Structure formats: structure tokens, C-alpha cells
Fold:
Amino acid sequence: MPSKPVRQLLVAVAVFVVVAAGVAALLLTGRDRDAGPARPGNPPESTEPGAPAEPGERVVVVKIDNVAPARPQTGLTEADAVFVEPVEGGLTRLAAVYSTRLPPVVGPVRSARETDIDMLAQFGRPTLAFSGAAPEILALLQESPVDSATSEQIPGAYFREAARPLPHNLYVRPDQLPPGHGRSPARTFGTGPAPEGGRASGEHTVRFPAATYDFRWSAEQGRWLVALDGTPVESVGHGQVGAATVVVQQVPVRAGAHVEDVAGAVSPVAETVGTGAVTVLRDGQEFEGTWSRPAAEAPTTFTTAGGEPLRVAEGPVWILLVS
Structure:
């Protein structure tokens, strides 16, 4: 048995360890409550548009198929932002931007478009996962700040799902791609409370020539639930997809220089540098305003009709590029 002085020393050490652990726990609890998890890509509660990136902040973008045989998709609910862009035949395709979370699998993956080049430059130097593109567009991507990560370049990150038909069965494991770097969508668009002057709205419809999107506000979930052509947009394992903010961005759309589909239809190009009208849905309200972006490397900013900043809510953002 230890001597009395030794026993007293052991008791003192034990008491110190217990007290130190309790203090550390209180400090950690306070930090988590005040600031949220400290991890790259997790912005503070309010940010200005174009806020600097956090060190090590990743930006990975995946082009996702959106036609009927490709649904339901995988990995949509983890996206920080989802762009809906026009493609051939009046249809749409998705570009999902990941910064705060990377799902284990995303897809089905499809090809890149000329729209992607300027559209994605506002995030810095993101990694773009896609399945191919016309040679002319590949050349444009090589000259852009976007880092390509195709199935030909990184074959080990991609796989085919036998239960799905070609070409709607290519999937990617994003954690096996280069992480990219730049600003998260929240830092790019700016987050914060809604301004005054919103109009209460429970539903909103956005029409493309051959696709119709419906957004229904769910106060319980705090999300605009997404439907396409009358069917809920679902992500495998997570149910219906929802957005905290929906941005309906009116943009010029021109005919691209390259034929894309077997019928000879020319791919449209949505112009995302410039200015135009915008409708922003958030918090069960609808705001009319203006979007502005002076250069490809600059963030897109939104203002109300009265000129007040119109920031996005915390959570997923869907941006629909409509003409």
C-alpha cells in the first residue's frame, strides 16, 4: 500500500484531472453552441456576398442527369447548391455544388456544357466531375479556372450501376476526386436574414420548354420541396429534396457553337455574367429583385426592388437559369 504522502498526491492528481476535464467539456459545449462545428465550408450565421474562403474550403461540382430514366438521383440532399440549367430539346440538367458535406456517391453523372464555365467560376477553382463533352467545350474548360475530373481522367472514382440503363448509370465517389478550392455557395451568395417587403407564398412554378419545376413551402421542414413534371424530386435514401432558398434567375440564353445531340440540336448557353431580374423564395416568402455579376470570377449578388441586399437563407440553394 502506498504511503500517506503518496496517497495524498494521487488523490490530488485525480481531482485535478476531473476538474480539467469538466472545464474542457464546458468550453467545448460553449464553442459548439455559439459557432457551430468548426470545419471547412461551414460559414458563420451571416456572410457578405463574396466572403473570403476558409483555409482548405473545398468546392466539388458534379453534373447530374435529370431526365426520367435517371431519377431518382443520388446525393442531391447533401449539395450546398444545385443549378438547373437549360440543355438541348428544352430539357434541363443539374450542377450540384458540394462544400460542407460530400456524400459517398453522386449521380447519375452526365456531360458538361458551355454554361458551366462562367457559371462555376464564381466559386474559385472548383473540381468539376462530368462524363464527357464536345471537344470544343473540353478545350474551353482547359482554359478556365475549373479543374476537370472526368471518368477518363480518374477512372477509379467512377462506376457503372448495372440496374440502370446506359447512359444513365454512371456514378462518382466524390471523396476520391481532387477537392477543389474556393468559396462555398454560402460565402459566394451571402447568407443572412430576409429583408422587408416579401410576399407570402406557398407555391411557385418555373417552366422550361420541356420541363416544369414546382416548389412548395413546408413550414415544418423549413424547406421548399422540389417537384419536376408533377413528380417529387427524390434523392436515394433521403426522400424528397428540399431547398432553403430558391433563386429563379432570368438570364439571356444563346445558341451554342457546338452540336450536342443525335438529332443535331444545338446546346443552349445561359449567360450568367451581367444583370437581370430575379425572384428569390425563402422563409415562405417571395421577393422580386435584380441579380448582378460584373465578371466571371465575381460572385452573383441579389438585391430587392428597393435596392436592399437580398441574401440566401442558411441551407441548400437551388438556382434555376431561365430565359
Observations:
- The two ends are 85 Å apart (CA to CA).
- The chain has four helices and 24 strands.
- The chain has one domain: 60-322.
